[in-house]
Every structure is written in structure tokens, then in C-alpha cells.
Amino acid sequence: MGKMKILWWVCVVAIACGACGRQKAEKPLPPAPLDIYVPDTSDEGDSDTLFSSLVEKNFFSGEDGIFEEFLYDFSADTLMQKHRIRFPLPYLRKGKEVMLGEQEWASSHLLGLTDIYHTLFERDAEMDAERDTAMRKANLECMDMKTGIVRTFFFEKIDGCWRLLKVREEGISSYRHREFFTFYHRFVTDSLYQSLHVNDPMTFVTIDPEDDFNILEANIDMEQWFAFRPMLPEHLLVNVDYGVKPSRRPQRKILTCKSLGGNFNTTSYFRKIKGEWMLTRFEDMSN
């Protein structure tokens, strides 16, 4: 009995630490630094050209790794966007396609991301896609739950570099994951609804605050969940789609939730029980 009480208090401390990390994750991202050396030159007329060529060669032309790392730089740096978008950019809205030039893109603020993004899976094996450097296509789906609009940004890795090729805007009624994300939006905004869709008890997993290499796992009840539940995006939901096809009648959903800066990292396991989505397991691996 004494060991169980010790384990419980360790979990409380771990969750509290995770909450502090999550508050930091809500802060807006600073612009990504351009760590490029530009030598002095006596020819002032060519300085701008020299700087631009060095930026493109050293920062924008290197081969990319995983999409997650590219997205951090791309979302924070408008100069990088200029070099990684294929202009004119096709923008499909309400069945009509317009072509956006560099100026239209810069003034549109279409890529209005939050620091937190999700990735939706159905099986544990599919989660390897997040770290797969061989991945060649990825879509970024931004759901504005207040307006009911979903914007999908289509990225493709060409010659080793991720590039944005087109944007599509549609109503959420046409979105293939609408059933789950409609549930999820209500789950994070309605406490009463949430209480009816959290399994009691629920499995909670976190990092040992005294040993980063040790993982703690325990069952928590509803009262403990509401005391330490995480802060999650409510109205702007951003989902990274790696091309994993959903089942026709899925009974399980795995939702990872991360910050672009990397200090927030949770995984929620939902399962359909008697026709209702229920949160059955929650993992908090935040730094």
C-alpha cells in the first residue's frame, strides 16, 4: 500500500511538471534564425545579391530530413516559405482555382499555425511514419472549428527538399476525418461531455521526474484526470497527414499532439466502446 502511495505522488509531480512545459508550448514561435556568415565587401551595390545567394545556397537548398523538422522552420520563416513554395501556387476554394503569386501569399496569412499540431493514426505501427526520412508526401490540414473550414496544404519532397505545391479549402462536412475531429473538438471544449468519454480508470504514462530513462505507468480515476488534464488546442486543430488510409469503420484512434519546438509531446488512445469514443490511455512525454 505504501509503494502505491509513493507511485501516486510521483505521478502527481510528473503531471504538474508536464503542465508547466505545456504553458511554455503555448507561446508563439520566434522566427527561425539564419545562421549564415556574410563576409564584408567593398562593393556595396552587390551586397544584397551576395546575401540572397548565400541564404539560398546554405539554408534553403540543403536536403531535408523528416517533415516535422522542416515544418518548424517553414512555419516560422517567411523567407524560407518564398523559396519552398512553387509559385504560382494553385489555391482551390469553393470549387474555383486561383493562382497565388509571392505577393498574394505574403499578404494572405493562409498558414496561420498554432504551436501545437496533431497526427492521427489507427495502429501503433503507423506511427513510424513520423520519423521516416524516406517519406515523399505529407499534407497539413488546418481545421478552423469555429468557421467549419478545412485548409489542406499539399507538400512533396522534390530533389531532397520539401515544397508546398498547392492548397485546397473545403467545408468540414467534406473532410474525411470529420467524425472523429468533431467528437474531439467537443471533447476538449466541453468538460461535462469529456467526463462521459474518459474511461474510468484510465491508464496514464509519463516520464519519471527523477530519471528521464524510466517510464511510470499507473491507473488514474476521473477526479485525478480533471486535476491534471493537459491544455490542448480547442478551435484551430492542425493535423499532419502522412497518407495513412483510415479504416471504413475504425474502432481505435491514436492522436499524437506535439509542439513545433519539441517540448510538448502527448499521445491519446481512443477506442469505440458501445458506439462511443472513449479515452482509454494517455501518455505524456513532454520535456
What key attributes describe this structure?
287 residues; alpha+beta; twelve-stranded mixed sheet; 34% strand; disordered N terminus
Task: Give the topology, please.
Blueprint: H1 2-25, H2 47-60, H3 67-76, H4 78-84, E1 89-93, E2 96-100, H5 102-108, E3 116-121, E4 137-144, E5 149-158, E6 161-171, H6 178-189, H7 191-195, E7 198-208, E8 211-220, H8 222-228, E9 236-241, E10 252-259, E11 265-273, E12 276-284
Helix pairs in contact: 3-4
Structural account:
- The chain is α+β, with helices and mostly antiparallel strands and 287 residues long.
- Helices cover 30% and strands 34% of the residues.
- It contains 8 helices and 12 strands.
- A 12-stranded mixed beta sheet has the order 2-1-6-5-4-9-3-10-11-12-7-8.
- Strand 1 and strand 2 form a beta hairpin.
- Helix 3 packs across helix 4.
- The longest helix is centred in the N-terminal third of the chain and has 24 residues.
- The N terminus is likely disordered.
